[in-house]
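U., I forgot to send this yesterday:
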Amino acid sequence: MLRNNRSLTSWSPRGCVVVPTMGALHAGHAALIAMGVHEARARGTRCVVTVFVNPTQFNDPSDLAAYPRTLDADAAWCARTGADAVFAPSPEDVYPPGQPIPTPALPTVATEPGLEDAFRPGHFAGVCQVVLRLFRLCEPSAAVFGEKDWQQLQVVHAMAAAEMPGVEILPCPTVREADGLAMSSRNARLSEPDRAQARSLSAALRAAGQVASVRAAESAMARVLSDAGVRAEYAVVRDAATLEPLGDGRAPGRALIAAWAGGVRLIDNAPWAGA
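Result:
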Protein backbone atom coordinates (compact mmCIF):
# COMPACT_ATOMS: atom_id res chain seq x y z
CA MET A 1 0.00 0.00 0.00
CA LEU A 2 1.27 3.45 -0.93
CA ARG A 3 1.23 6.05 1.83
CA ASN A 4 1.73 9.55 0.50
CA ASN A 5 1.64 12.52 2.82
CA ARG A 6 2.16 15.15 0.18
CA SER A 7 0.86 14.68 -3.34
CA LEU A 8 -0.22 12.05 -5.81
CA THR A 9 2.01 13.21 -8.64
CA SER A 10 4.25 10.12 -8.42
CA TRP A 11 1.28 7.74 -8.54
CA SER A 12 -1.58 8.86 -10.72
CA PRO A 13 -4.87 7.47 -9.40
CA ARG A 14 -7.03 8.93 -12.19
CA GLY A 15 -10.33 7.05 -12.27
CA CYS A 16 -9.81 5.70 -8.75
CA VAL A 17 -12.47 5.23 -6.09
CA VAL A 18 -11.78 7.71 -3.31
CA VAL A 19 -12.88 7.48 0.33
CA PRO A 20 -12.58 10.94 1.93
CA THR A 21 -12.03 10.90 5.70
CA MET A 22 -10.75 13.15 8.45
CA GLY A 23 -8.87 10.27 10.05
CA ALA A 24 -9.36 8.84 13.54
CA LEU A 25 -10.59 5.78 11.68
CA HIS A 26 -12.76 3.10 13.28
CA ALA A 27 -14.87 0.15 12.19
CA GLY A 28 -17.41 2.48 10.62
CA HIS A 29 -14.73 3.89 8.34
CA ALA A 30 -13.59 0.34 7.61
CA ALA A 31 -17.00 -0.30 6.06
CA LEU A 32 -16.55 2.77 3.83
CA ILE A 33 -13.09 1.60 2.79
CA ALA A 34 -14.29 -1.95 2.16
CA MET A 35 -16.99 -0.57 -0.14
CA GLY A 36 -14.40 1.59 -1.87
CA VAL A 37 -12.09 -1.39 -2.38
CA HIS A 38 -14.94 -3.54 -3.72
CA GLU A 39 -16.01 -0.83 -6.16
CA ALA A 40 -12.42 -0.19 -7.25
CA ARG A 41 -11.85 -3.86 -8.01
CA ALA A 42 -15.13 -4.02 -9.97
CA ARG A 43 -14.03 -0.99 -12.00
CA GLY A 44 -10.49 -2.25 -12.56
CA THR A 45 -8.96 0.64 -10.65
CA ARG A 46 -7.55 1.47 -7.21
CA CYS A 47 -8.97 2.69 -3.91
CA VAL A 48 -7.48 5.83 -2.34
CA VAL A 49 -8.33 6.87 1.23
CA THR A 50 -7.77 10.55 1.96
CA VAL A 51 -6.95 11.60 5.53
CA PHE A 52 -7.27 15.34 6.00
CA VAL A 53 -8.61 17.28 9.00
CA ASN A 54 -10.17 20.14 7.09
CA PRO A 55 -9.96 23.44 8.99
CA THR A 56 -12.57 25.20 6.85
CA GLN A 57 -15.48 23.05 7.98
CA PHE A 58 -15.07 23.66 11.73
CA ASN A 59 -17.05 26.61 13.04
CA ASP A 60 -15.64 26.03 16.56
CA PRO A 61 -11.82 26.38 16.80
CA SER A 62 -11.75 24.28 19.99
CA ASP A 63 -13.48 21.44 18.12
CA LEU A 64 -10.79 21.59 15.43
CA ALA A 65 -8.03 21.59 18.06
CA ALA A 66 -9.56 18.61 19.87
CA TYR A 67 -10.04 16.50 16.76
CA PRO A 68 -7.74 13.45 17.01
CA ARG A 69 -4.82 13.03 14.60
CA THR A 70 -3.85 9.34 14.38
CA LEU A 71 -2.26 8.91 10.95
CA ASP A 72 -0.16 5.82 11.77
CA ALA A 73 -3.18 3.99 13.16
CA ASP A 74 -5.29 5.21 10.24
CA ALA A 75 -2.80 3.83 7.73
CA ALA A 76 -2.92 0.48 9.52
CA TRP A 77 -6.74 0.44 9.25
CA CYS A 78 -6.44 1.15 5.51
CA ALA A 79 -3.87 -1.59 4.98
CA ARG A 80 -5.99 -4.17 6.82
CA THR A 81 -9.05 -3.21 4.78
CA GLY A 82 -7.27 -3.46 1.44
CA ALA A 83 -6.94 0.17 0.36
CA ASP A 84 -4.26 0.78 -2.26
CA ALA A 85 -3.13 4.20 -1.01
CA VAL A 86 -3.50 6.73 1.78
CA PHE A 87 -3.31 10.36 0.71
CA ALA A 88 -2.64 12.59 3.74
CA PRO A 89 -1.92 16.09 2.46
CA SER A 90 -1.06 19.08 4.64
CA PRO A 91 -3.31 22.16 4.75
CA GLU A 92 -0.76 23.90 2.50
CA ASP A 93 -1.12 21.11 -0.07
CA VAL A 94 -4.89 21.42 -0.12
CA TYR A 95 -4.96 25.21 0.19
CA PRO A 96 -1.71 26.48 -1.34
CA PRO A 97 -0.74 29.87 0.13
CA GLY A 98 -1.41 32.71 -2.26
CA GLN A 99 -3.70 30.61 -4.44
CA PRO A 100 -7.36 31.33 -3.76
CA ILE A 101 -9.45 28.17 -3.57
CA PRO A 102 -13.05 29.11 -4.39
CA THR A 103 -16.00 27.65 -2.57
CA PRO A 104 -18.49 26.12 -5.02
CA ALA A 105 -22.02 27.46 -5.03
CA LEU A 106 -23.90 25.81 -2.19
CA PRO A 107 -26.92 23.70 -3.13
CA THR A 108 -30.19 24.49 -1.37
CA VAL A 109 -29.94 21.24 0.61
CA ALA A 110 -26.91 22.86 2.31
CA THR A 111 -28.60 26.15 3.15
CA GLU A 112 -32.36 25.80 3.62
CA PRO A 113 -33.38 22.72 5.66
CA GLY A 114 -32.56 24.29 9.04
CA LEU A 115 -30.62 21.25 10.25
CA GLU A 116 -26.81 21.12 10.31
CA ASP A 117 -26.81 24.27 8.18
CA ALA A 118 -28.51 26.17 11.02
CA PHE A 119 -26.45 24.78 13.91
CA ARG A 120 -23.02 24.68 12.23
CA PRO A 121 -22.73 27.89 10.20
CA GLY A 122 -20.09 27.67 7.49
CA HIS A 123 -19.77 23.90 7.82
CA PHE A 124 -21.11 22.92 4.41
CA ALA A 125 -19.19 25.67 2.67
CA GLY A 126 -16.04 24.06 4.07
CA VAL A 127 -17.24 20.56 3.15
CA CYS A 128 -17.99 21.52 -0.45
CA GLN A 129 -14.71 23.40 -0.78
CA VAL A 130 -12.53 20.54 0.48
CA VAL A 131 -14.42 17.74 -1.27
CA LEU A 132 -14.19 19.51 -4.62
CA ARG A 133 -10.50 20.20 -4.00
CA LEU A 134 -9.82 16.53 -3.14
CA PHE A 135 -11.77 15.40 -6.19
CA ARG A 136 -9.63 17.60 -8.39
CA LEU A 137 -6.45 16.30 -6.80
CA CYS A 138 -7.44 12.63 -7.00
CA GLU A 139 -9.53 12.67 -10.21
CA PRO A 140 -11.78 9.79 -9.07
CA SER A 141 -14.53 8.02 -10.95
CA ALA A 142 -16.45 7.49 -7.71
CA ALA A 143 -16.39 8.48 -4.04
CA VAL A 144 -17.80 6.75 -0.96
CA PHE A 145 -19.63 8.69 1.77
CA GLY A 146 -21.40 7.40 4.85
CA GLU A 147 -25.12 7.70 5.47
CA LYS A 148 -24.56 8.71 9.10
CA ASP A 149 -23.96 12.29 7.93
CA TRP A 150 -27.15 12.21 5.88
CA GLN A 151 -27.38 15.91 5.09
CA GLN A 152 -23.71 15.97 4.11
CA LEU A 153 -24.34 13.02 1.77
CA GLN A 154 -27.14 14.93 0.02
CA VAL A 155 -25.00 18.08 -0.15
CA VAL A 156 -22.12 16.19 -1.74
CA HIS A 157 -24.51 14.51 -4.21
CA ALA A 158 -25.80 17.91 -5.32
CA MET A 159 -22.38 19.59 -5.38
CA ALA A 160 -20.78 16.77 -7.41
CA ALA A 161 -23.65 16.79 -9.91
CA ALA A 162 -23.09 20.50 -10.49
CA GLU A 163 -19.28 20.67 -10.38
CA MET A 164 -17.95 17.19 -11.30
CA PRO A 165 -20.76 15.12 -12.81
CA GLY A 166 -18.30 12.39 -13.78
CA VAL A 167 -17.83 11.44 -10.10
CA GLU A 168 -20.41 8.93 -8.83
CA ILE A 169 -21.32 9.32 -5.15
CA LEU A 170 -21.73 5.94 -3.43
CA PRO A 171 -23.64 5.88 -0.10
CA CYS A 172 -22.54 3.44 2.61
CA PRO A 173 -25.02 2.42 5.36
CA THR A 174 -24.34 3.50 8.93
CA VAL A 175 -22.36 1.02 11.04
CA ARG A 176 -23.57 0.64 14.62
CA GLU A 177 -22.04 -0.65 17.80
CA ALA A 178 -23.63 -3.53 19.68
CA ASP A 179 -25.73 -1.14 21.79
CA GLY A 180 -27.10 0.64 18.71
CA LEU A 181 -24.89 3.73 18.90
CA ALA A 182 -23.81 4.91 15.47
CA MET A 183 -20.03 4.59 15.16
CA SER A 184 -18.24 7.92 15.36
CA SER A 185 -14.82 9.17 16.34
CA ARG A 186 -16.66 11.34 18.87
CA ASN A 187 -17.84 8.26 20.80
CA ALA A 188 -14.41 7.97 22.41
CA ARG A 189 -15.15 11.24 24.23
CA LEU A 190 -18.28 9.87 25.91
CA SER A 191 -18.16 9.04 29.61
CA GLU A 192 -20.16 6.00 30.74
CA PRO A 193 -23.14 8.17 31.84
CA ASP A 194 -22.91 10.10 28.56
CA ARG A 195 -22.89 6.88 26.57
CA ALA A 196 -26.04 5.71 28.31
CA GLN A 197 -27.68 8.94 27.20
CA ALA A 198 -26.26 8.62 23.68
CA ARG A 199 -28.02 5.31 23.18
CA SER A 200 -31.31 7.22 23.26
CA LEU A 201 -30.64 8.56 19.74
CA SER A 202 -31.01 5.16 18.09
CA ALA A 203 -33.90 4.35 20.45
CA ALA A 204 -35.64 7.56 19.37
CA LEU A 205 -35.20 6.65 15.71
CA ARG A 206 -36.72 3.23 16.35
CA ALA A 207 -39.66 4.87 18.11
CA ALA A 208 -40.21 7.18 15.14
CA GLY A 209 -40.39 4.20 12.81
CA GLN A 210 -43.28 2.71 14.77
CA VAL A 211 -45.78 5.51 14.15
CA ALA A 212 -47.60 6.54 11.00
CA SER A 213 -47.53 10.33 10.96
CA VAL A 214 -44.71 12.87 10.85
CA ARG A 215 -46.07 14.72 13.88
CA ALA A 216 -46.31 11.53 15.92
CA ALA A 217 -42.82 10.45 14.86
CA GLU A 218 -41.30 13.76 15.90
CA SER A 219 -43.17 13.67 19.21
CA ALA A 220 -41.96 10.13 19.86
CA MET A 221 -38.34 11.11 19.23
CA ALA A 222 -38.62 14.18 21.46
CA ARG A 223 -40.09 12.10 24.27
CA VAL A 224 -37.39 9.41 24.15
CA LEU A 225 -34.59 11.99 24.08
CA SER A 226 -36.13 14.07 26.88
CA ASP A 227 -36.64 11.00 29.09
CA ALA A 228 -32.93 10.20 28.67
CA GLY A 229 -31.90 13.73 29.66
CA VAL A 230 -30.47 14.46 26.22
CA ARG A 231 -30.54 18.02 24.88
CA ALA A 232 -31.78 17.83 21.30
CA GLU A 233 -31.05 20.47 18.70
CA TYR A 234 -33.45 18.86 16.29
CA ALA A 235 -35.37 15.60 15.99
CA VAL A 236 -37.39 15.74 12.79
CA VAL A 237 -38.73 13.78 9.84
CA ARG A 238 -37.91 15.25 6.43
CA ASP A 239 -37.99 14.39 2.75
CA ALA A 240 -35.07 11.99 2.34
CA ALA A 241 -33.61 13.76 -0.71
CA THR A 242 -34.39 17.46 -0.24
CA LEU A 243 -34.61 17.49 3.57
CA GLU A 244 -37.57 19.82 3.29
CA PRO A 245 -40.57 19.25 5.60
CA LEU A 246 -42.45 16.09 4.75
CA GLY A 247 -46.24 16.12 4.65
CA ASP A 248 -48.14 13.27 6.27
CA GLY A 249 -48.68 10.36 3.93
CA ARG A 250 -45.63 11.09 1.81
CA ALA A 251 -42.57 8.86 1.66
CA PRO A 252 -39.70 8.13 1.54
CA GLY A 253 -38.66 10.16 4.50
CA ARG A 254 -35.69 10.36 6.82
CA ALA A 255 -35.75 10.78 10.59
CA LEU A 256 -32.80 12.91 11.69
CA ILE A 257 -31.45 13.83 15.12
CA ALA A 258 -28.71 16.07 16.46
CA ALA A 259 -28.32 16.07 20.24
CA TRP A 260 -25.84 16.55 23.06
CA ALA A 261 -24.90 13.66 25.33
CA GLY A 262 -22.97 15.39 28.07
CA GLY A 263 -20.50 17.63 26.24
CA VAL A 264 -20.47 15.61 23.01
CA ARG A 265 -22.62 16.51 20.03
CA LEU A 266 -23.89 13.48 18.11
CA ILE A 267 -25.96 13.01 14.97
CA ASP A 268 -27.92 10.01 13.72
CA ASN A 269 -30.65 9.21 11.22
CA ALA A 270 -32.73 6.38 9.81
CA PRO A 271 -35.17 5.78 6.98
CA TRP A 272 -38.78 6.66 7.77
CA ALA A 273 -41.81 5.55 5.79
CA GLY A 274 -44.51 5.66 8.46
CA ALA A 275 -45.69 2.56 10.27
